[in-house]
Amino acid sequence: MERKKPELLSPAGDWEKLQMAVAYGADAVYLAGTAFGMRSFAGNFTDEELPRAVQYAHDHGVKVHVTVNTMPRSGEVERLPAHLERLDDAGVDALIVADLGVGLVSLGLGVAILLGQVSFALLMILVIVRSIGQAFHGPAMMAAMPLLVPERHLLRINTLDQLLMSVASIGAPAFGIFLYTTLGFHTVMFLDFFGALAAVAGLALAKIPTVIDKAAEDQHVLANLRDGWRALSTSRGLVILIVGVTVGMVAFAPLGAIFPLMTFDHFGGDGYAASLIEAAFGAGMVVGSVVLMAWGGGKRLAGLIAVAAAIVGATTMACGFLSPDMFWAFAALCAVMAMACAWFNGPLITLIQRNVPEEKTGRALGLAMAGMGLASPVGIALGGMLAESIGVAPFFVVDGAICLALGLVVYLPKSV
Fold first, then answer.
1. DSSP string over 6-23
2. Is 67 helix (H, G, I), strand (E, B) or coil?
3. What is the Cα–Cα distance from 247 to 243, expressed in whole angstroms?
4. Cα 281 from chain centroid?
5. Span between the terminal Cα atoms of the chain, in Å
6. What is the CA 271 to chain-centroid distance, rounded?
7. What are phi and psi of 177, to 5 degrees?
8. CA Rg, the chain, in Å?
9. Do residues 225 and 363 touch, judged by C-beta distance below 8 A?
């Protein structure tokens, strides 16, 4: 069978980089205009320069892909059709988009699987693309929430969003395995594509108020991160809280991987017992979220987060002290632990939304979520080594003590 030559796709952030890419043999380039693209670090091309850039590339046999991968705000939606028409008139060969782009990757992978062309590399591409998409979508959705929801309901809506994600994380793997075993992996990928279509359709119908930060229009990525840090650092208590939660994520993240080891090694359980623990934890998250939505969290959300950390720490420590014949007590403690876990994200996100100006919220949330996201793999790596060294049950005691101490430390400063 004849092997197809891979296409060399090169970034072209400005005229100089475009000419270099063409000169050194790129088959295609990707670039952005001055709007609707996330390539803020690049120089980009004005509406007048873009047709000339496309013509230059085509004269040398090079295709041009243009990024249109931001989430347009309501004030920008009206300008999007004209922007797309200009790209079409310029003769661009393809667009790189956000939700739909992730969906198209799933569609392409589904077709490849159907044709028997699947490989580990293709699966890794799918995982990476989806992760990049989520890195943008999460903070963007959370930053838009204060523009759509009255402040008194922010915590409840943030918690509802967390609850829906928890329910999806519980049900989606089982549903995906069902589709995989009955209809094949390609069906899962096709369903993912249609889900992306539904997301794009929903976004098109949503009306989100426009908030523009003139000072950040020409910022590159690192400047965006610095801007987010400055917005957060105006509240000393908020910084202490975010740092505490991030350190707590380092301590708590390993538990998800070590729960099955506790079931198998300490309690002598089997796969059924491990699934019961997962179900207990999932049910606890749901109950905790419902309680928080009904209650409203009280007047001091930072205090709620500290109390939740103390409850997680105490229940984790108690799990480590259980004897091997106390499996059902372990399940009950895991459910209580999960209820407290539901009281972290919603209150923390709400505090950021309330204390950071609307035009800075996206950058502040993105920075905070990036820090907590990095904490998880670091915690899993460190926790795995510690559990291997001291044993699974003693690890629960040590890990719980760390979480309990963090809760007390975060609660004590008056600025929090």
1. PP-EEE--SHHHHHHHHH
2. strand
3. 6
4. 21
5. 65
6. 29
7. -65, -40
8. 24
9. yes
SS (H, E, C) 310-359: HHHHHHHHHHHHCCCCCHHHHHHHHHHHHHHHCCCHHHHHHHHHHHCCHH
Residue 325 CB contacts under 8 Å (≥ 6 apart), including other chains: none
Amino acid at site 128: I
Pairing of strands 9-11, 94-97: unpaired
CA–CA dist 377, 142 (Å, integer) = 23
**Under a CB-based contact definition with an 8 Å cutoff, are residues 180 and 98 in contact?**
no
* pTM metric for this prediction: 0.65
Over the range 215-235, which residues count as b (16 or more CB within 10 Å of their CB) and which as e? ebeebeeeebbebbeebbeeb
Q: Are 407 and 302 in contact (CB under 8 A)?
A: no
CB atoms within 10 A of CB 137: 15
Q: Which two tokens stand for residue 44?
A: 């980009």
For residues 334 and 231, give the distance between their C-alpha atoms in angstroms, rounded to a whole number: 36
DSSP code per residue over 174-236: HHHHHHHHHT-HHHHHHHHHHHHHHHHHHHHH--------GGGTT--HHHHHHHHHHHHHT-H
Going edge to edge, which strands form the sheet with 28-31?
9-11, 28-31, 63-68, 94-97
- pLDDT score at 225: 73
Q: Using one digit for the tens of pLDDT, what is the confidence trace for 355-373?
A: 888 878 878 888 888 888 7
Residue with tokens 């200009």: 86
Q: Does the pLDDT of residue 387 top 80, yes or no?
A: yes
Asked if pLDDT for residue 105 goes beyond 50, the answer is: yes
Closest CA to 338 of 287, 301, 384: 287
